[in-house]
Amino acid sequence: MNAIRRSRSSTLSAVREAIISCEACPRLRTYCTDVGQTRKAAFKSEVYWARPVPGFGDANARVLILGLAPAAHGANRTGRVFTGDGVGASGDFLMAALKRAGFANISTSQRIDDGLRLTDAYIAAAVRCAPPANKPLPEEIARCLPHLADEVAHLPRLQVVVALGKIAWDAWLKLLVASGTELPRPRPAFAHGAKWAHDGLTLVGAYHPSRQNTNTGVLTAQMYDAVFRDVVGCLR
Question: Considering the chain, what percentage of its residues have pLDDT values greater than 90?
Fold first, then answer.
């Protein structure tokens, strides 16, 4: 963790502004802009954010929740991760679990002005722009890692990282390697409920709360409750 704690920006607000202004991935920037101009029928009257999306939450958080990327008509529209992707969709599923665990004050995440507040938790994404078909390229993930490192540098109390899906899990491991950490062999493998402790921080795996997982029963509310009970148990 000490190797990650460096930042080009002096404050978390400065990190946020650097993320918002990023133009490092032309394919993603073009896609986000195009989506924001064409818009979904249900949101034709809205002005889309259509820019890279920074993380949000408690700067004193001990828990970082790391997702994949903004949804094209969710965070790419609202400007906040896991927000506005539909009633009962991934944002609501995650926030309901965080509320039950004591990390969120409300159980939905539909609008940026909905009053949602996180306590002891910070949410970010491995990739900050919505990717076509929800599939970022490896080089796009790599270009985004410095943004994650900069945010982490301003989360001094961080103890647990919850990786929502294999891409987020692998992105965190790549960040550690880029910061000089030598991973054990075999490499820590992603699984729902998997844990790996290193250098004062615990990495916890959880299935991503996509509709594909929640609508099919691959992921249930009870499974998330078990993960976040485990997360709370890891906190010092």
Answer: 94
Query: Among 214, 121, 133, 59, which Cα is nearest to 206's?
Result: 214
* pLDDT tens-place string over residues 162-175: 999 999 999 999 99
Amino acid at 146: P
User: Which position has the token pair 């994949």?
Assistant: 68
Class of domain 12-234: alpha beta
The CA dihedral of 121, 122, 123, 125, to the nearest 10 degrees, is -140
CA separation (Å) from 96 to 68, 89, 151, 205? 19, 11, 24, 18
94-107: string of b/e by CB count within 10 Å (b at 16+)? bbbbbbebebbeee
| Nearest residue to 193 via CA among 236, 232, 231, 221 | 231
**What confidence tier does 8 reach under pLDDT thresholds 50, 70, 90?**
low
Place of tokens 């002891």: 120
Mean pLDDT taken over the chain: 95
> 65, 121 in Cβ contact below 8 A?
yes
Provide the token pair at 199: 């250098």
Residue 192, both tokens: 């729902």
Question: In sequence order, which residues have a C-beta less than 8 Å from that of residue 170 and are 6 or more positions away?
Answer: 190
Does this model's pTM top 0.85? My answer is yes
